[in-house]
């Protein structure tokens, strides 16, 4: 109560400061008159009485000052004064101000942008979804095999029934669908989801409804779909009566039952879903047959949501215990199978997992850039504060406290930072959705990787701004307010100022910049060398002159026989085309985004460890696949047209599988069991890569498509440039069967190139920031060198007068600059040795301490600093001794 | 805002101002200063300048009020008077003061602190 009253009075006092001042003036004048009059009455002469009254009063100015401090808010008033003064100072030196604000804007903007990416892609990837902090990704594990697997539907149901730590188990399996629009067909990304999907996520369709529990079961029994807002707007022109209408999806009419809200794009980081389909329609949209009741068919990707207060560890240990029970209850399918939960930002089956290392690297790089920017601005402020030392000295001499000078300089720094923060946030707002540009475009896929500028990002950016203000403004402020008055007054007329300790601080700041730039240069170099190494890796098949595409037979409703007939006919026609050497169908071409099917196998004569299942990936291929792809067979034969349903089942294994499970025996002619069928090995294929260039060699086998059916991938080997064949390919297919839709036609070289996207992204990021850092460091070095030169003009003049020639001075300045750089590089080597661990998991066949890269980065750094020193050195060498000594 | 630390001199100045206004009715700043000096038998030479910030502070606390008026020699002057809250404060501070001075004087009696 009392405090409030005092505050109110002070506040009122601050607003009516002028009146308060006048009143006090009057009151004090009255007091002095009364006192003087009283003294005169006692017999003092008038002149003496006035002095005596003043003496007894004891300092009018001090009284006024105390009075003012009691009457208002001196801190706020002083602050305003500082702010106004700071603005004047910044305006008076616009070049300096703009350079400083630009540096900081880049630093803060880079950080805010990366924060927004991390928030939008990793931490809160799903707009509109409730309680994302309690969501975790769920995957299976297979003992003895690194990496993750998917989960089967029966297992999933058992987890949902037996676990108590979870609110919801959500199925979300990404798939591509073909939708027919009139006689055209298009591909679109879609998700097969469990019926609880929309309710559990807290996302409510704006029209119609979500799925119902009944729609989870019944083989292909519920052809219904929920469409995205974008599809509704663009494809159906926002038709308000859309609910109940039919849309052909993969050749089957589906009833549209709902429209998702505008900002909901599904729960697959990286892609914006357009259709959602119920579990019961799995067979139509997910290759490999009906899987809903098959415990051995692992195909589900999904999320769980923990109950409030349940920790990750508790959830993980409970679900692992249930998985163990299932392992005991169903050894045939579940031996060695576990469950692993991941925080959303580590989700292994969507883009979150693949982008995590890149984003982590981006963050480190952005922080390095900010530090460099801070060091740079700090240096600029230091240089300027030396130019302003006259002002500082006068202020201190006429009674300003060091604290006031310090506060003043800090205020100037804060204003720079405030401008930079505004600029940085604007930059982040502009760049928040640009991450996707760093990834290579892929036709037919709408990549969706938005940044998110929410209050958490804003708060963090503000924090970064505050910390950086302290970083860059503190050192100059401490130094400037710490002027040795007497010394400065004496030195004012010339001579060496700003020497000694201050020069040391400046040198250290420059060295920090050089060190951090060196770090980024080494990072860029390492990634560049790594990318070279990746691209030089032999995939084990020919990438030149091979064309790949897909034909969606399922969407056209073709059965197995019709598909096989078409395939044989098409291959025949293609091989008669000029330039085509061979062509073959395959279940799945190498290096696509999709993964291969896998099977648990038993090898005759090989004893697997008791608690493990051998699981090997496989693919069905047509007769001339190995010739088309250029994969040599090291032993045995290729598949023949005679390997049909009526012939004994056969397989071709790769070298790794041969050496791992047959250990020195000749596998050709021997058998292994997969999917309940014994297959005879007829050949051994040379080792090749299957999904990307950096994968480790793994066991793999091929089956003949004529025995297993299916095969939507088409590979064509040609002697002509592959691109010239695309048109002929399309028209051949159209002529044979116009209901079939040809997918994207792409050369294998391009397909392989796409798998290095992550490395390319990281490299682009580092190269961008590395260049920026180099530029900033060069500016910093230039600033210090040119200031040093301007301070040493007299010395240079003297030396010239004493007989030094131009070359001596030039060499001297450059030597000074390069010494600074060398010290910075040494510091950089130490930092880099520690920090390159960050990129280690992005590196392939390159040591994180690769000496060549370190050397190259050092050379680049040295060249940049040489360039930065040249102008100051040249200026030093042009010193006119007469003028320098006179000034 | 926490009350000022019990500074004996400052505290006693507050007490003296309140007591002066309570016994003499509305007074201007010079009058208060004069009265304090007279009461102390001119022994206590007040630093008169420090009186005005103290008056402002007391007014902010609501213990005294001020009004512009005309002085005995027909000049514009600011007159201070004690408020109801001020009287309450005076009573409690007087009591406080007496208690403390009682304790101090007991200490200062011969053998006071050793018993």
Précis, in short:
The complex is a heterodimer of chains A (887) and B (115). Chain A is 53% helix and 16% strand.
Which helices and strands occur, and which strands form pairs?
The complex is a heterodimer of chains A (887) and B (115).
Chain A lengths: L1 H14 L1 H25 L4 H12 L2 H12 L2 H19 L1 H30 L11 E8 L2 E5 L3 H10 L3 E16 L2 E10 L3 H5 L5 E2 L15 E4 L1 H6 L11 E4 L2 E8 L10 E2 L3 E4 L3 H4 L16 E5 L5 H18 L1 H4 L2 E7 L7 H37 L1 H9 L4 H30 L15 E2 L6 H27 L3 H7 L9 H36 L9 E5 L9 H17 L3 E7 L10 E7 L10 E8 L3 H5 L3 E4 L13 E5 H8 L8 E4 L2 E9 L14 E5 H4 L4 E6 L7 H11 L9 E2 H7 L2 H35 L1 H9 L4 H30 L1 H4 L10 H27 L3 H6 L1
Parallel strand pairs in A: 4-10, 6-8, 17-22, 19-21
Antiparallel strand pairs in A: 1-2, 1-11, 1-12, 3-4, 3-7, 3-11, 5-8, 6-10, 7-8, 9-13, 14-23, 14-24, 15-23, 16-17, 16-20, 18-21, 19-22, 20-21
Chain B lengths: L7 H17 L2 E2 H11 L11 H11 L2 E7 L5 E7 L1 H25 L7
Helix pairs in contact in B: 1-3, 1-4
């Amino acid at each position: 109560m009392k405090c409030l009253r005092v505050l109110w009075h002070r506040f009122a006092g601050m607003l009516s400061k002028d009146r308060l001042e006048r009143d006090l003036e009057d009151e004090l004048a009255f007091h002095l008159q009364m006192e003087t009059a009283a003294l005169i009455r006692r017999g003092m002469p008038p002149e003496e009485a006035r002095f005596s009254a003043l003496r007894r009063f004891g300092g009018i100015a001090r009284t006024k000052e105390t009075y003012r401090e009691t009457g208002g808010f001196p801190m706020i008033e002083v602050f305003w004064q500082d702010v106004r003064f700071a603005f004047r100072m910044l305006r008076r030196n616009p070049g300096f101000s703009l350079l400083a604000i630009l540096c900081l804007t880049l630093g803060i903007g880079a950080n805010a942008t990366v924060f927004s990416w991390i928030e939008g892609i990793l931490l809160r990837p799903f707009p509109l979804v409730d309680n994302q902090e309690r969501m975790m990704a769920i995957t299976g594990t297979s003992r003895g095999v690194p990496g993750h697997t998917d989960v089967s539907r029966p297992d999933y149901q058992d987890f949902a029934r037996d676990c108590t730590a979870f609110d919801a188990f959500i199925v979300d399996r990404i798939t591509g669908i073909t939708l027919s629009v009139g006689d055209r067909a298009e591909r679109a990304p879609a998700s097969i989801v469990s019926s609880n999907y929309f309710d559990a996520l807290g996302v409510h369709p704006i029209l119609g409804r979500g799925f119902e529990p009944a729609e989870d079961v019944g083989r292909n029994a519920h052809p219904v779909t929920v469409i995205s807002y974008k599809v509704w707007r663009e494809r159906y022109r926002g038709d308000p009566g859309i609910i109940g209408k039919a849309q052909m999806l993969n050749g089957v009419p589906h009833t549209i039952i709902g429209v998702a809200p505008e900002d909901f794009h599904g729960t697959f980081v990286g892609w914006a879903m357009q259709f959602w389909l119920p579990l019961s329609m799995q067979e139509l949209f997910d290759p490999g047959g009906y899987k809903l009741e098959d415990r051995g068919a692992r195909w589900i990707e999904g999320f769980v949501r923990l109950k409030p207060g349940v920790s990750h560890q508790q959830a993980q240990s409970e679900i692992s215990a249930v998985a163990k029970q299932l392992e005991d209850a169903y050894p045939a399918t579940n031996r060695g199978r576990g469950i692993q939960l991941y925080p959303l930002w580590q989700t292994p089956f969507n883009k979150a997992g693949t982008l995590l290392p890149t984003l982590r690297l981006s963050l480190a790089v952005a922080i390095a850039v900010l530090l460099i920017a801070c060091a740079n601005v700090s240096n600029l402020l230091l240089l300027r504060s030396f130019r302003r030392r006259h002002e500082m000295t006068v202020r201190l001499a006429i009674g300003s406290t060091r604290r006031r000078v310090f506060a003043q300089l800090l205020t100037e720094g804060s204003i720079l930072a405030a401008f930079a923060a505004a600029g940085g946030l604007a930059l982040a707002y502009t760049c928040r959705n640009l991450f996707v540009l760093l990834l290579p475009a892929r036709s037919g896929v709408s990549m969706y990787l938005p940044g998110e500028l929410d209050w958490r990002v804003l708060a963090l950016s503000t924090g970064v701004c505050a910390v950086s203000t302290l970083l860059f403004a503190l050192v100059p402020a401490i130094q400037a307010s710490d002027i040795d008055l007497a010394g400065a007054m004496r030195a004012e007329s010339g001579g060496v100022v700003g020497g000694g300790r201050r020069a040391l601080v400046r040198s250290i700041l420059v060295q920090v910049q050089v060190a951090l730039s060196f770090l980024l240069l080494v990072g860029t170099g390492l990634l560049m060398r790594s990318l070279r190494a990746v691209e030089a890796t032999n995939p084990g098949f020919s990438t030149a002159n091979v064309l790949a595409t897909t034909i969606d037979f399922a969407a056209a409703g073709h059965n197995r026989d019709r598909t096989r007939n078409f395939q044989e006919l098409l291959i025949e026609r293609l091989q008669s085309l000029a330039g085509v050497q061979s062509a073959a169908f395959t279940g799945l071409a190498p290096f696509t985004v999709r993964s291969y099917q896998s099977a648990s196998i038993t090898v005759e004569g090989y004893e697997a460890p008791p608690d493990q299942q051998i699981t090997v990936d496989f693919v069905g291929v047509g007769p001339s696949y190995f010739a088309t792809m250029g994969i040599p067979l090291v032993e045995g034969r290729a598949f023949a047209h005679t390997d049909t349903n009526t012939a004994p089942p056969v397989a071709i294994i790769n070298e790794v599988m041969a050496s791992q499970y047959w250990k020195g025996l000749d596998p050709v002619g021997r058998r292994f069991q997969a999917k309940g069928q014994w297959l005879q090995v007829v050949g051994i294929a040379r080792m090749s890569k299957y999904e990307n260039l950096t994968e480790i060699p793994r066991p793999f086998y091929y089956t003949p498509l004529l025995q297993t059916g299916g095969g939507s991938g088409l590979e064509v080997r040609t002697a002509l440039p592959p691109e010239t064949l695309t048109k002929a390919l399309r028209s051949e297919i159209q002529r044979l069967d116009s209901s079939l839709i040809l997918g994207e036609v792409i050369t294998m070289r391009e397909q392989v190139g796409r798998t290095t996207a992550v490395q390319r992204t990281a490299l682009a990021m580092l190269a961008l920031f590395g260049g920026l850092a180099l530029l900033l460091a060069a500016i910093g070095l230039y600033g210090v060198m040119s200031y040093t030169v301007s301070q040493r003009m007299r010395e240079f003049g003297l030396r010239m007068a004493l007989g030094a020639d131009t070359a001596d001075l030039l060499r001297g300045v450059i030597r000074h600059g390069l010494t600074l750089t060398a010290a910075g590089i040494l510091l950089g080597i130490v930092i880099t040795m520690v920090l390159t661990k960050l990129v280690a998991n992005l590196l392939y066949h390159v040591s994180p301490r690769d000496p060549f890269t370190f050397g190259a980065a050092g050379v680049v750094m040295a060249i940049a600093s040489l360039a930065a020193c040249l102008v100051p050195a040249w200026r030093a060498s042009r010193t006119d001794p007469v003028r320098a000594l006179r000034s | 805002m926490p009350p000022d630390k019990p500074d004996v001199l400052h505290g006693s100045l507050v007490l003296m101002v309140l007591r002066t206004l309570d016994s003499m009715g509305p007074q201007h700043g010079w009058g208060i200063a004069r009265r304090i000096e007279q009461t102390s038998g001119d022994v206590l030479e007040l630093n008169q300048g420090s009186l005005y910030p103290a008056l402002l502070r007391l007014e902010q606390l609501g213990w005294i009020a001020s009004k512009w008026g005309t002085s005995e020699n027909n000049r514009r002057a600011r007159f201070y008077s004690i408020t109801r809250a001020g009287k309450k404060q005076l009573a409690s501070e007087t009591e406080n003061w007496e208690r403390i001075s009682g304790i101090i004087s007991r200490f200062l009696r011969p053998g006071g602190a050793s018993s």
